[in-house]
Amino acid sequence: MQLFLDTASVTEIKTMWEIGILDGVTTNPTLVSKEGKTFDALLREITALGIPSVSAEVVATDTEGMLREGRRLREVHSSIYVKIPMTSAGLKATKILASEGTRVNMTLVFSPNQALLAAKVGATYVSPFIGRLDDQGQDGMELVREIVTIYRNYKVPTKVLVASVRHPMHVVDAAKIGADIATMPFAVMEKLVQHPLTDLGLARFLKDWEKVPKG
Questions:
Q1: Strands 125-128 and 54-57
Q2: Distance between CA 16 and CA 50 in Å, rounded?
Q3: What residues act catalytically?
Q4: Contact 42/10 with Cβ under 8 angstroms?
Q5: Nearest to 104 by CA among 83, 79, 74, 128
Q6: In order of start, what are the domains of the chain with their CATH numbers?
Q7: Below-50 pLDDT ranges, the chain
């Protein structure tokens, strides 16, 4: 499973990219607003790092507006995937953009039916928001399970990108189900590396190493 960082922070992206565990980045208007830079300038900084997949979201709500923004965003860099919201206008825009060769990440997906429609119009990624479903008392991971099952039934090429990831177990569960990608905040990705027994084991080894004769 690929691991994406859900951020617009170049510092956070650089950190994980240099470690070697990062496969891509997803951004959204909320994340971009925190950085104090123009959208295009920020995207150029991120893509300059060599990130192979960078999702950039449109803010228009009508089809024509989505098409204008999507076409502009795809010209920023060849690694850009255009994020389009799951609406009727978004489906229409995705169909057109996909026919032009634009890779679309259909976002704000909350049901299997929506995921099925996203695939039918040619979305490259579909992004179910599991954490937001959990917040409403629903089982977000069950949605991922349903989408993966449907896509496998029909050999759908659209990839399942699990979004709104809140903790490391979301990542583990998504991987067990067979999702293609999980995108997560920097803090969650940091926790994937960490385990208290690793820290204790390392401290023990270093302490024992002090007893080894030197020279």
A1: unpaired
A2: 12
A3: 83
A4: yes
A5: 83
A6: 2-209 (3.20.20.70)
A7: none
Please state, in angstroms and rounded to a whole number, the distance separating the CA atoms of residues 166 and 130: 9
Q: Give CA–CA dist 143/133, Å, rounded.
A: 9
Kindly list the distances between the CA atom of residue 74 and the CA atoms of 6, 49, 214, in Å, as whole numbers in the listed order: 19, 17, 59
Tokens of 14: 């650089």
Rounded Cα gap, residues 12 and 31, in angstroms:
12
Q: How far apart are CA 114 and CA 86, in angstroms?
A: 7
Work out the widest C-alpha separation in the chain, in whole angstroms: 74
| CB count in 10 Å sphere of residue 41 | 11
pLDDT in tens, 27-83: 999 999 999 999 999 999 999 999 999 999 999 999 999 999 999 999 999 999 999
Q: Do the Cβ atoms of 43 and 10 come closer than 8 Å?
A: no
CA distances from 54 to 7, 11, 154, 167 (A): 10, 15, 27, 22
Decide: 23 and 5 in contact? Cβ < 8 Å: no
Contact 87, 121 (CB under 8 A): no
How far is Cα 20 from Cα 22, in angstroms, rounded to an integer?
Answer: 6
Amino acid type, 67: L
Report helix, strand and coil shares of the chain as percent, to nearest 5: 50, 20, 30
